[in-house]
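Human: Here is a favour to ask of a fellow structure person. Comparing notes only helps if you start from a blank page. Give me a protein, with the fold worked out from its sequence. Please set it down just below, with no commentary around it:

Assistant:
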Amino acid sequence: MTNRLFNFKQNVSTALQDKQLRGNLKSAMDSMIQKRRELFADHQEFEKLRELGSSIRQRSLEQLPQLLESLEKKCLSNGITVHWAKTKTDANDIVLKIIKSKKASNVVKGKSMVSEEMFLNEYLQQHGINPMETDLGEYIIQLAGESPSHIIVPAIHKNRAEIAELFRNHIPDAPHTEKVEELNSIARQTLRKYFFEAEIGISGVNMAVAETGTLCLVENEGNGRMCTTLPPVHIAVMGLEKVVEKLADVPPLLKLLTGSATGQRITTYVNMITSPRKPGEKDGPDEVHLIILDNGRSKILADPELRQTLKCIRCGTCLNHCPVYTRIGGHAYGFIYPGPIGTILTPQLEGLDKTDSLINASSLCNACEEVCPVKIPIPDLIRRLRDEKTTKKGVVNGHGSGRSLFEETAWKGWALVNKYPLLNRIGLKSLRTLGVKIPEIGPVKSWAKSRCVPELSKKGLYELVQREGVENE
């Protein structure tokens, strides 16, 4: 996928003019918000659950190095091969090496945001391997040649008519229909042969349990279970922050994840993978490989404030409630993680110098923080990143890339004028003497597009008070 963020403003303008996109998003978001609201109708109980989920994720991050070591040790004892990847390139190379070692050519994939972050499909295609996405939403956007528009619902930006047209154009002998059941049946029949022919299955990981070495995957369609049980080799990829300490930590996070993501009490399939197929078992792969990706996460972990970004359980509810995302969709952001979570995660992974537009794609209305199931203070982190963008000393790659000599000079002048009374009086008198509207030029012109430009008064507040005869106490 090509990076579109260099033209972020144009992306936003194009999205806002797309009435079909706006309509598709509104219909989907209204439904998802309502289902979530109904599921978590008891506000007090929900707040207790949020507090529990937040504490579990915080505790996991505070002892993450030890938990990762425990996870590796337990996985190895269970028969799972563990690989460590510092960068996306490292992770892709590991996947390719495993595929080549098995002389495999048929690869099926379950939904995985980390694999999207790695651009795994593109990488494998460059090496002559065509992985088949089996999640319905991922399959749809793969046919369309697009990236996911949403963390949970990749094809949320498309309606039934658009999907029907895609199927008719890309699936041989597929009848044209806009009935949901028939579209699902077409996809199911098409994908079935890939499951049976696959030599490698690739999946993500929702949670990895250090206590037992268990990989937890949640889904609704059964494709994830097919990818992780039918092929003889299963490769799971995960960001290093996905580990939790105990098996008992899974149920509350699972309830928060499924309820916030789709408004369900539980998903249709909860897969708990602890080992390859054992003697006497009827299904399961002969080999399980776990790839643990860093890709900048350890640097995020090192900062006590920014660390909270890694609490995210990828439920997508912050996207559903965001007034920016719900009007422009995910593709306008130009990177894999859109919406509020992408606004704070992507700049830390890719660098502020490459993603500076993202941190301004927020109204700071606090809706994302209010609905986040693990209580990530997203608005605070956005403000922190905005500070990093303009500061000389920072921890995020690309810090200081937004520094402006004009802005720095203007603020220093403002501070100087307000520090010394004489300068303040001279400055105010000069402005009152001018008594004209501030000219809409330079930076003011852009600022004035959505604001009323003030007109300077010829008399100051102190003079007006004196004129009214109010005594100075």
Q: What stands out?
A: The two ends are 67 Å apart (CA to CA). Confidence is low (pLDDT under 50) at residues 1-5. Residues 405-467 form one domain. Residues 137 and 153 are 6 Å apart (CA to CA).
